User: Fold this.
Amino acid sequence: PFMWHLVEWKNTGEKNNGFDVLYHNMKHGQISVKELADFVRERALIEESYSKSMCKLAKMVSSNTQLGTFSPMWDVFRISSDKLALCHWELVRKLQELIKEMNRFSEDQVKVHRKTKEEVSGTLEAVQNIQASVQLLQKSKENYHSKWMEWDRLKKEGATQKETDKAEVKSKKAAETYKNCIEKYSAARADFEQKMTETAQKFQMIEEGHLRHMKGLINSFSHSVEDTHVQVGQVHEEFKQNVENIRVEDLIRKFAETKGTGKEKPGSSEFEECNSATVPEGECLLL
Assistant:
């Protein structure tokens, strides 16, 4: 079973400030959610910027010269750049959804904390009571010791009976006050221990739930980034394979086919002698 040291009394402190520590720790949970959302938001902006840059790169590739034998290779670059842009844009979308979930969680935390503050108001009162009791107890103890020492001094110095009796009365009165303060402190202490134990357990449950949810949000972030890395790896592998599949002879053949360099050789020509039997009169001169 999960054990948490916040319910141990050694952590409440000599001034019994443990409640204040636990309460503010709970409030810090809201700050943690906000800071995590800010981090994811910044990461989303980075991914968005990268995606837009890849789109620009794809457009630049599309405008490259289509002349020469190398031109088909630009299609491979364009397709790869478009796919990479899409991968990172998909991650942006996932991160934006995650930020929305974080905002909802933050709102829920505010409600939980507001409700908890009302529920532990009695504990806060118990804390204030025991703190006040400790102060009164210390003062009454010091006063009793002071009165008793004064009475003891007068007895040893041989003071008059009247002075000694008067000091004795004050000492006994201070002793009674001291005993009453001890009783009040004991009652305040018992009430404090009971309420503080219950409250610490309540804070513990809230903190456990908070941390579990935070870890869940981080896992969602991690899985989204991991999925994108897998997709990017697949795009790079496809790019590499496409480059390997396009042979040099294929590039040359495609260039020849598209540019019409010709498949048939020009016909040969032979000398034809003019004579009166084969050529009509006057045509030989024209030839």
In short: Residues 154 and 164 are 6 Å apart (CA to CA). The chain has a mean pLDDT of 87.
